[in-house]
Amino acid sequence: MALSKTDRRNRLRFRIRKTISGTAQRPRLAVFRSNKEIYAQLIDDVSGKTITAASSRDKDIDASKVNKVEAAKLVGKAIAEKAVKAGVDAISFDRGGYLYHGRIKSLAEGAREGGLKF
């Protein structure tokens, strides 16, 4: 029997998480994509703390009234700005089981433009 879409994504997600882990010097940029919004957070897995987060629901991004791919790029730039303020310049990118395509790719490109290295 075929896996459901969420089961397949979770299987991919756990496979990715076996190899990717965040530290204080190189945190993990975790991405969650819903049908309407996109969320990103920098996580230090050693201490179990979220360093910073950004989403398409933030006031400045939500007010820009752009399509979802462009909003994802703005989220990437926003998380990069917050990361640089927190003293982080290198990250591990955790795509969360999603294909590196569309909004996920746009978020990653925005984070790179904002100054993050991965």
From TrEMBL:
Q: Give GO MF terms, alphabetically.
A: 5S rRNA binding; structural constituent of ribosome
Any single GO CC term annotated in Swiss-Prot or TrEMBL for this entry: cytoplasm
Keywords, ordered alphabetically: Ribonucleoprotein, Ribosomal protein, RNA-binding, rRNA-binding
Tell me, which GO biological process terms does this entry list? translation
Task: Work out whether the entry's keyword set contains Lyase.
Answer: no
Please name the InterPro entries in this protein's record: Ribosomal_L18, Ribosomal_uL18_bac-type, Ribosomal_uL18_bac/plant/anim
Which Pfam families does the entry mention?
Answer: Ribosomal_L18p
Q: What does this protein do?
A: This is one of the proteins that bind and probably mediate the attachment of the 5S RNA into the large ribosomal subunit, where it forms part of the central protuberance.
The family assignment reads:
Belongs to the universal ribosomal protein uL18 family.
- Please describe the quaternary structure of this protein: Part of the 50S ribosomal subunit; part of the 5S rRNA/L5/L18/L25 subcomplex. Contacts the 5S and 23S rRNAs.
User: What NCBIfam families does the entry give?
Assistant: L18_bact
What name has this protein been given in UniProt?
Large ribosomal subunit protein uL18
